[in-house]
Amino acid sequence: MKVLRTPEERFNTILNFRYRPRFTETLNGYEYVRMHYIDEGPRDAKYTFLCLHGQPTWCYLYRKMIPIFLGAGYRVVAPDYYGFGRSDKPVDDECYTFDFHRNSIIEFINHLQLNNIILVVQDWGGLIGLTLPMEMPTKISKLILMNTALGTGEGVPSPGFKAFRGWVNKTPDMDVGRLMLRGTPILTPEEIEAYNAPFPDITYK
């Protein structure tokens, strides 16, 4: 699988997110494709908060929640999906399917042997993550849901969502930071740049 890897220096100036970057290239079925994640807090904590980001963001999205979870004495794990954040970005657009992302998260959970998970999901993190309790019911203990949905595969997308999809398809060089600013007008210039950091140019998007 041909991938792009965002240069690490793109992340060097990001403020208030100084967690140690960790990587795995050994997920079953995804060998040699690097996934980034952060893993903080005690390994023997009662619960592990597993934070799944949405589109087109990365684990930086949870920068203000992670310290709260850690401060309560829990472990926090937050991966970047393939194609996002510090994770490798497959060049072939056909790779990016629901199953591709969902299966990678299942393999990631098994790889880290996570249990007693408090699943934290937002946006596409919910569409992917909310299928996990059915897949691994003994591993998921609690849910925190934000701005998301559980898809059924039935029904018709709303006109607003169709319009958004149309805009995305016509905007291959989307300014991710500006898109985030539209939804969160209080973002600082530094935060906007942090959302842009994973994508040096159009080839990474």
From TrEMBL:
Q: Which UniProt keywords apply?
A: Hydrolase
Would the keyword Methyltransferase turn up in this protein's UniProt record? no
Molecular function (GO) terms listed? epoxide hydrolase activity
Domain (AB hydrolase-1): residue spans on this chain: 48-154
SUPFAM superfamilies attached to this UniProt entry: alpha/beta-Hydrolases
Matching entries from Pfam families are given as: Abhydrolase_1 (PF00561)
Q: What is this protein called?
A: AB hydrolase-1 domain-containing protein
